[in-house]
Amino acid sequence: MDAERIMERVRRLLAIANDPAASDNEQRIALEQAQRLMDRHAIEEWQLEEDHDAIEIIRRMIHLEANPCNWYMAELANIVALGNRCRASYGWRRAGNGRNVVCSISIYGARSDVDKTEAIWTAMETSRAAMWRERARTTPRAKANAAWRNGYYRGFQEEIARRYQILRREMESDGTGKELITVRGNQVDQWVEKHVTFSDRRPKLSKPTGSSQSAYRHGRQDGARQAIGLKETGKAADWALEK
């Protein structure tokens, strides 16, 4: 199956994962299938490559509209990028109020890995942007304010980060998967070091303040539902869900 057909199947699965009419179970199964399909295809491509050093590394920039959640969006992009053998960074600008804000995200990696990273990150962002207000609406004494949103976003991405750690261990248990993660990661790091110049003085960004612990718990729960290709059995599942 060629890369375009793979991505077409992934797009269909992600559409199901983001369909408000789909059940939690349907969304979970769809997103798990999408991530597993992408990982399996990556390993198959790696096995077929005659020269692993001939890979082209690209940079894809995603511009963000002004949004108080951009800081969290950049952090989640980095989590998903690392989980798909890529790297991510953010761009910033000075807003009219004098504050420095995140205005773009750059993803670095092999083209197929960048495509996967952007697709899965977009699906996750769509999910949590739709869900945080709904969770506030259905939770007694909750208010859909900035503190609730911040707590939800933080809990969601911390759970996703946990689950990607387990996914990495799952891939590394296979010899080919471990080689792919190690070699491709080094290639991307070397490319970024050679082609990207970061300022020595990182700006002091205006990070979101205030965070609801109740919303954080809901974010963790919804992050757990965003299955990303983990084996939901035994100790791995227990470790992923422990607080």
Q: What attributes characterize this protein structure?
A:
243 residues, mainly alpha, 3 strands, 62% helix, 11% strand
> What does the main sheet amount to?
3 strands, antiparallel
- Total strands: 3
* Main sheet: strand order: 1-3-2
| Overall pLDDT metric | 78
Give the C-alpha Rg.
18 Å
Spell the H/E element sequence: HHEHEEHHHHH
Strand content: 5-15%
- Number of distinct helices: 8
Fold and architecture overview:
Residues 5-44 form the DUF2786 domain. It holds the Pfam family DUF2786. This is DUF2786 domain-containing protein. Residues 199-229 are annotated as: Disordered. It comes from Bifidobacterium adolescentis. Helices cover 62% and strands 11% of the residues. By secondary structure, it is mostly helical. It has one domain (3-241). Strands 1-3-2 form a three-stranded antiparallel beta sheet. β2 (87-94) and β3 (100-110) form a beta hairpin.
Summarize this structure briefly.
The protein has 243 residues and is mainly alpha-helical. It has helices at 3-17, 24-48, 70-83, 111-138, 146-172, 175-195, 213-225, 234-241; strands spanning 57-63, 87-94, 100-110.
What's the SSE blueprint?
Layout: H1 3-17, H2 24-48, E1 57-63, H3 70-83, E2 87-94, E3 100-110, H4 111-138, H5 146-172, H6 175-195, H7 213-225, H8 234-241
Antiparallel strand pairs: 1-3, 2-3
Helix pairs in contact: 1-2, 1-4, 2-4, 3-4, 3-5, 4-5, 4-7, 5-7
